[in-house]
Amino acid sequence: MSDSPVRRTVVKHTIPSNYLQAGERAVRFYLPPGYQEWLSYPVVYCQDGEDFFNFGRIATISHGLILEENWEPFIIAAVDVDKSVRTEEYLPGSERHEAYLNFWLRELVPFVEKTFAARASAEARLLAGDSLGATVSLSIALRRPDMFNRLLSLSGAYYGASIAQMKEAGDLSWLSAWMTVGLQETAYETERGVHNFVELNRAAKRILEDKGAYVDYREKDGEHKWGFWQKELPEALGAFLGPKAHM
Q: How far is CA 138 from the centre of its chain?
């Protein structure tokens, strides 16, 4: 995809927080070409904000798709993370998980919808995450299905606590999930041990579908890294936001 002559607009805000220990969190925003304050736009909410922008190139990819493929314009809100406490924030049951969810639902979303021309409906909000970022995105949706009912999952780290969370959930017919995992992710070493991400994602898919969720699932050659996930982003975003969106 060629670089567009129309300049990308990326801004960064620091959002104050009464829940996070640091008292604030940096968030990166991509605004689409032709952005107007009196219109309203869908929003892609990303975990691991710095990685989604720098390694996933989500702003560059989205900019090109909007300009060249005639996609409806959308905003990206990508929340940065301190990698030293990432697991504690992202993993259900961990020490900082509740505070992180409260930040998202009570501070981040209201800030976005007050500051930008964001469309305020569950159908216009997409949660996107890689690995544990997908896990916490699902956790957010399960907590507030009235706010979020669409999930983009890149090699989700669906460990025991996340599987238990899914099993404890009631009817999930309100949830639409796009999932991918790399076939070379069968023995990935993490700080919580070595995990088979293919099996973890197969298990998550089965549970979600058993509870009525719509799941668009694929396994492809790929490793647990951004080199794989970046290539998947156009298809993933297209399922929700492209001209032929089906989710």
A: 9
Which of 117, 216, 199 is CA-nearest to residue 160? 199
| DSSP string for 114-142 | HHS-B--SGGGEEEEEETHHHHHHHHHHH
66 residue type, one letter: I
| 153 strand-pairing partners | 129, 179
247, part of any domain: no
Q: Do the domain assignments include residue 168?
A: no
Distances (CA, A) of 138 to 26, 112, 187, 199, 225: 21, 20, 23, 18, 20
Give me the CATH number covering residue 65.
3.40.50.1820
Structure confidence by residue, pLDDT tens digits, 165-182: 999 999 999 999 999 999
Q: Containing domain of residue 227, as a range?
A: 9-156+176-183+215-241
Could you give the number of structural domains in the chain?
1
Tokens encoding 124: 């216009």
The answer to whether the pTM exceeds 0.85 is yes
Contact 126, 152 (CB under 8 A): yes
Question: Is the residue at 73 inside a domain?
Answer: yes
Q: Which tokens hold the place of 95? A: 């020490």
What tokens were used for 128?
Answer: 């996107």
